[in-house]
Design goal:
The protein has 224 residues and is an all-alpha fold. Helices cover 67% and strands 0% of the residues.
Length: 224
């Protein structure tokens, strides 16, 4: 058990942080929602009712879809695009999907390679892109969830103000949907872009997200 905990410590710690943050968001969101309900003269919700409401679901879905979009784009763009001096980039002369030999697929795979990397054909093709396929699928499902729950929550606000609710298509074209979407997207793009640039000049000793402390600023694709 100790060996498992040590070897899986990164994913386990982030899993615990995720649960703690989600629970904290649930209680804080519930308190804030009921405060707004009371201020508007509406009824309060119990915690379980709040957690099954569109207001809670849309807040979670908005965050998830933007995070998975960030990783989907980063995985894809770093196949072809490079940044001189960044550990987040491949070496400058290795842009592209690379050769089968370098990627160790098909006849170049070893006996310890994943089975689908050795299989060839459609299975190897799918496995070669499996990470971005799964990330993109989670992003699209989360974004769809945001649109459905966001419409429900927004229509509830409209009805409270005696305004006509929006159809799903109308909501997809509304400023409300895109404001909520783009405010998350812009923060993700800023964070990834700044990380790629700052890691050219700044270091964190021992981190694989940083170059070795003594590496030159021009060194590309190196990690510490």
């Amino acid at each position: 058990m100790r060996r498992f905990l040590r070897q899986s410590s990164l994913s386990l710690v982030f899993g615990v942080l995720f649960v703690l943050a989600l629970v904290g968001q649930a209680f804080a969101g519930w308190k804030q929602f009921n405060a707004e309900q009371s201020a508007g003269g509406f009824g309060r919700l119990g915690l379980v009712d709040y957690l099954t409401s569109a207001d809670w679901a849309v807040d979670v879905a908005e965050n998830w879809q933007s995070e998975y979009l960030q990783f989907t784009l980063f995985i894809l763009l770093t196949v072809w695009l490079v940044q001189r001096g960044s550990p987040e980039s491949k070496e400058l002369d290795k842009a592209g999907t690379e050769s089968d030999e370098r990627q160790k697929v098909g006849r170049h795979a070893s006996s310890s390679s994943p089975a689908w990397a050795r299989a060839g054909g459609l299975r190897t093709t799918l496995y070669s892109h499996s990470l971005v396929i799964v990330m993109a699928t989670i992003w699209l499902l989360s974004w769809f969830g945001q649109s459905v729950t966001g419409r429900s929550s927004y229509n509830a606000e409209l009805l409270d103000h005696h305004q006509a609710p929006l159809s799903y298509v109308q909501y997809l074209g509304s400023a409300h949907f895109w404001e909520n979407t783009l405010q998350n997207w812009q923060s993700e793009f800023l964070a990834v872009g700044s990380m790629a640039i700052l890691a050219v000049y700044l270091r964190q000793r021992g981190s694989p997200e940083s170059k070795p402390v003594g590496a030159t600023h021009e060194a590309t694709g190196q990690t510490g």
